[in-house]
Design brief:
The complex is a heterodimer of chains A (196) and B (167). Chain A is of the alpha/beta class and 196 residues long. Chain A is built from 5 helices and 9 strands. Helices cover 23% and strands 23% of the residues of chain A. In chain B, helix 1 runs antiparallel to helix 5 and helix 2 packs across helix 5. The chains are: A alpha/beta (196), B alpha/beta (167). At the A-B interface, loops of A face helix 3 of B.
Amino acid sequence: MNDASLIESVEARFPEAVSTAHRFRGDATLVLRRESLLDVARFLEQDPAFSMDLLVDITAVDYSAFGKGPARAFFRSSGVALGPAAQIPDEDPWPGPPDARRFAVVYHFYSMVHRHRLRLVVPVGEVEGATEEVDSLVELWPGANWLEREVWDMFGIRFRGHPDLRRILMYDGFEGHPLRKDYPVNKRQPLIGPVN
Amino acid sequence: MPLDTSFLTSRLDAAIGWARKYSIFQYPFVTACCGMEYMATACSHYDVDRFGAGFPRFSPRQADVLFVVGTISHKMAPVLKRIHEQMADPKWVVAFGVCTCTGGFYDNYATVMGIDTILPVDVYIPGCPPRPEMVLDGLMKLQDKIQAQRTTGERAAPEARPDILAR
């Protein structure tokens, strides 16, 4: 399936689950409601027309500082050229953050059988200071185990049903989640030696 | 005067220093991309064996010089410290690459800003990564330092980093 038919098929099967969808330079993206992630993922893995047998990556984005920094001027002054990329004609320009919620968990799937790929974006908000939980995909793709632990470690997003959700990159005793935008960029928590 | 009574004099310090500086058993603690440059230096093209340092030991208990090659994270720091403590005296430490010297371009939650915050360092070899010529230059500086060391263990004070001096 191509990017358009991937989106159409999932939207036809789960009209309630998909909040928005877009295509960007040939890649299909579906923005899902958090509650329906597990159903959609199970369908993608088991349906022979999709057979998403490879979970390529799970990551997350913290949009809390999005659009507030001097990004364009910064990139221009650092010598990264914006010109050529801006000249690429875009039929489907990048739509920006999926919605107003702070985080988005991003899943990349690939089918070795059909050689098509699909991205799922699950917006995750905060309720009274606590980050919402997302369903774990470990039962469908065992490789999700470490990836979800990394997202928990770096962003502090919990996965419901994960068999062993603990830090994977940072050490025990590390406080906070370093890829959150409110983690101070120079804050250090050394195990030995001075706070340098 | 018959020839077979000829003799040679030297100070004990100088003789031991000469022997030590040409029989460096190094422990390469390689964590990152500088390792490629370390391998280039160690192999036949640049041939670190010309300086008597061609024999890497992968046990710290058999090593004289700890080569710290590559970025050290805060999670790794206790391991490096323990490796250094396991080495027998006399021992020396070389900071290989700018990440081990100062943290390099990393300035974040994960990276140790120079291994001299946790270990005494004898020679700093900056560069990202340093060329093999720089490594050999650093090795010769280390040899000078080993030669100058006294049998009592007395040695030259470690080089201070310029940013520490300014504080």
